[in-house]
Amino acid sequence: MRYLPKSPADRAHMLREIGYKSIDELFAPIPAEYRLTRDLKVPRQMAESEIIDFFRACAEDNASGYAVFLGAGAYHHYRPVVIDSLISRGEFLTAYTPYQPEISQGTLQAIFEFQTMICELTGMEVANASMYDGSTGSAEALMMAVRVTGRKGAVVARTVHPEYREVMLTYTQHQGLPITEFGYLENGRVDMADLEKKITADTACVMIQSPNFFGTIEDVAAVADLAHSKGALLVVSISEALSLGVVKPPTEADIVSMESQSFGVPLGFGGPYAGVMATKEKFVRQMPGRLVGETKDSNGKRGFVLTLSTREQHIRREKATSNICTNQALIATMATIYMTVYGREGIKELAQQNLAKATYAANEFAKKGKILFQGTPRFNEFVVQTKQDPHDINNRLLEKKTIGGYPLKRFYPELGNAALWCCTELNSKEQIDTAVQAVGQ
Amino acid sequence: MSDKYIKKATRHVNQNEDLIFERSSPGKKGYRLPPLDVPEVDYKQALGQAARADLGNMPEVSEMEIIRHFTRLSTWNYAIDLGMYPLGSCTMKYNARVNEVVARLQGLAEAHPWQPEKVSQGALRIMKILADCLLDITGMDAITLQPAAGAHGEMTGIMLIHALLKSKGNPRKKILIPDSAHGTNPATAAICGYAVENLKSNAQGMVDINALASQMNEDVAGLMLTNPNTLGIFEQEIHKIAAILHDKGGLLYMDGANMNALVGKTRPGDFGVDVMHLNLHKTFSTPHGGGGPGSGPVACKKALEPFLPKPVVMSKPDGTVGLDYDRPQSVGRVRMFFGNFGMHVRALAYIMANGPDGLRQTTEDAVLNANYIRKKLDGTYELPYKSASMHEVVFSDHLQSEKGVKTGDVAKRLIDYGFHPYTVSFPLVVHGALMIEPTESESLDELDLFIDAMQSIAREVNEDPELVKTAPHSTRVSRLDETAAARKPVLRWKP
Ligand SMILES: Cc1ncc(COP(=O)(O)O)c(C=O)c1O
């Protein structure tokens, strides 16, 4: 086997040194009746070229090189080539968690930069080193709000990504942490009156997403005022991180839970992505996940370490703030490189292009269908209601190598034949015009 | 300091590099966008009050500086590509480059998770084939690939147990966890609403069967067992353990962090395990990336299948692969979309590169390597448990502590010798533990260098304990003040 660096003579030598006659003796601790005496039923050992052929065939069975109008929590953005060339360096790719800071300064400094950039973008004071993704990060944010407030429930907007809400329900079901949902208005924003009715003296937090699942930007300050007036925290979830290039950061929030996939992470059929949690300094000790902090070495030189680990499972065990251990460090590094490439001006410029594309597309779609949730600001997603079932429209589009918007019926049956469309900098005018044409047929 | 015994490594110059923010100045750019082909939109007008003023201190640097910055940072890391990484229960093995190539094929890397099933057949097929391979490897009946890491898999598995017991009328109150368990096990049980009850190990470092029998009752939902455990010892009475649990209606959860000792040699499903997770970022070679991403598939027996997170990947009668969302008893969803698909691709590529013979040989080499180290270092370092070792071995610093040198000091000195330290002070059952897992990826030469380094350090402990206690001496930063970092946390750069 080509990954194994031993000759038969090496193995024989080592066995002799140990004082064993055969490899089987090493496995003697396994009771004989449980030893596997047949080959595993897995594909036979393959050459590298065969492996590439197999996966290439799989890749070709997927839509490849299609125009993509799907967003809904996973966004198709351009990825500068330097990202992969840098994260493919073995020193980033094949390093472990930086528990030994003297030989992990590269990862530690990159994550410290990541934390700083996330703070700058979200308007929060501290950010952690990453969560698994936006959905699990949201669930952890609710649990954190419970720890901070000592209260027991969460009120979550129906305009939060439906799969985030499913994940939150799964996480909280065993913790006596009831989740109540509240609705939205015709302008696409959360229904404040409904929210007011649903917050109780036991509500630990209100959670909204902005831009929300329909692409509408929420009035974060107003929701924060209401939540705070009832003694609850406000958690803001962000699934399209690039929106922060032009959208005011949710500084009124107490906790921000963000999916950073838009920052240079491939769509990759849903993962790996990287969630990140950001909050106010005063809540940092209730935060889940790893944190990198600055310190000095014994010669007074600046260096970075994992810190505040008494929150974490390896120290606190069942009293830890979370069970998370392995996170998404390499993906956070990708995002850091992406944020560095575009930087202060580029993230804004890119966000402006997204806004322009989506605005153009929405105007064009409006000629063939109805744009829902008018009159409130949006970023790069919008909802189009059509006469035809969006699945039929999408089937027609597939023939034009185009993946249409996400049909909303499954999660929002009340919206009828509506679909959520997304336009990024990668959608050309020509692609948009083709899609609009198919809707009108 | 003295370098006289050091064979593997030589000091060399590495570049200094500031924080990226300290390199930034207005007007520098690392990008250029194509011209906009639709009318421009004034975002301040479009967004009104929701418009952002500026992006604060986000960096402004050129492409050349970005390449240098991150390349320089990278050179400050140790990595499996540089040498042995003997962290216990972490299985730092070779990360094959073909895995990276196939994960980046356009049709996979650019697949949107919600694109229609009929244009996702390639991705779904990869998940299905991987699922089938993992089922045969574990001897289980059903599987989900959704969990994003080991701890996430644990949570999923314990939720399955909870759901099954609840469907029978009583989810019960407690989970038993051996004292040698990883911290994620008790943290997971707590998240799932269970109280944790500690289970003592016996003098052989295995589960104390009598203690288990006396602690097992109708309040206990199950036992979370790592096998081989974190001492590297196979739980030889595993069938009795399973029987004690099953007799009282409990379930056996296996933390599969140490599957690298078992693949192709024995199957948890055959020795009584009801549900377990695998770490694709350990046993199946997906890269650790400085702390993640991982992937933690959960495999279970038939009785637990109805409760698996949805959707489940399945073959359809027409020969295509689909996603089954219609699972009324499901515990729900543990992550959006389908988990860390990119890791599924890499793990399957690893399995294909190995085949059944390669997987078996891999396991044999991993166990051989650990036992070789054990044999060579036994006596130089105290071996607190004499039971046979599988893929890892745990020593203690008992002999060195007489000179005031602790496991953490020996570990730091190992850095000067060109190695990443072993796992320090874990498992907790061993005072001053040195937990060593070489994996199959180490050649005899590298092992001999490691053994030589460990022996030299033991010698230095006697000759010059200060040298060891102040190590490392060759790194760009010396020991860092972790207490100060925690007392007054500085968690971000400020201008
Ligand atoms: C024995 C054991 N269990 C569980 C875990 C947690 O796995 P993960 O870090 O993938 O969440 C680890 C690894 O760190 C481990 O060694």
Description:
- The complex is a heterodimer of chains A (441) and B (495).
- With 441 residues, chain A is an alpha/beta fold.
- Chain A folds into 3 domains: 8-50, no CATH class; 67-78 and 347-439, Aspartate Aminotransferase, domain 1; 82-339, 3-Layer(aba) Sandwich (Aspartate Aminotransferase, domain 2).
- Chain A has helices spanning 8-18, 23-26, 48-61, 81-87, 90-93, 105-122, 134-149, 162-172, 192-198, 220-229, 313-316, 329-365, 390-399, 429-440, and strands at residues 67-68, 126-127, 153-157, 179-182, 203-209, 233-238, 255-259, 275-279, 292-296, 302-306, 370-371, 381-385, 402-403, 406-407, 418-422.
- A 7-stranded mixed β-sheet of chain A has the order 2-8-7-6-5-3-4, with helices on both faces. Chain A has a 4-stranded antiparallel β-sheet with strand order 11-12-15-14, with helices on one face. A two-stranded parallel sheet of chain A has the order 1-13.
- Chain A starts with 7 loop residues before the first helix and ends with a helix.
- Helix content of chain B is 35%, strand content 10%.
- Chain B has a domain at 98-352: Type I PLP-dependent aspartate aminotransferase-like (Major domain) (Aspartate Aminotransferase, domain 2), CATH 3.40.640.10.
- In chain B, helix 3 (97-103) runs antiparallel to helix 10 and helix 6 (150-167) packs across helix 7 (184-191).
- The radius of gyration of chain B is 25 Å and the shape is globular.
- Chain B has helices at 43-47, 63-74, 97-103, 106-109, 121-138, 150-167, 184-191, 209-215, 238-247, 341-377, 398-401, 407-416, 444-463, 465-469, 482-487, and strands at 142-144, 174-178, 195-199, 220-226, 251-255, 275-277, 298-300, 312-315, 321-324, 393-396, 423-424, 433-436.
- Chain B starts with 42 loop residues before the first helix and ends in an 8-residue tail after the last helix.
- With 495 residues, chain B is an alpha/beta fold.
- In chain B, the strands form 3 sheets. A 7-stranded mixed β-sheet of chain B has the order 1-7-6-5-4-2-3, sandwiched between helices.
- Classes of the chains: A alpha/beta (441), B alpha/beta (495).
- Chains A and B meet through helix 1, helix 3, helix 4, helix 5 and helix 6 of A and helix 1, helix 2, helix 3, helix 4 and helix 5 of B.
- The site of pyridoxal-5'-phosphate has 13 residues of chain B, from helix 6.
